[in-house]
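U., I forgot to send this yesterday:
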Amino acid sequence: MTRYCKAVVNGKVICEKVELADNFFRRFMGLMYRKKLDENAGLLLDPCKEIHTFGMKFAIDTLTISRDNIIIYIDENIAPRRVRPGVKGGKKVLELNAGTIKKYGLELGDLVEFQE
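Result:
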């Protein structure tokens, strides 16, 4: 059963429908082979500190998040077929549509709240 939540930063809902990838198979598959990521949707890989975009058909923004849900690394507009290095202290990675980071002005040190 797929679980979802909302992602809120600075009191703003940045993602209405965050899919939780919290087991090996869901983390492994991630966004591979999907044609797109719905608007206001995202994928939370937990646990995770590095990603790749092989098998993807679109660019994404990512937030690497600490154990305390603080943004510790931001990567924008990652094209398909790329490998992103692991981030020390990373516990989760939130994958979002390209442009989401700029749209909401997300910055290092922001707290991400995940609400059911």
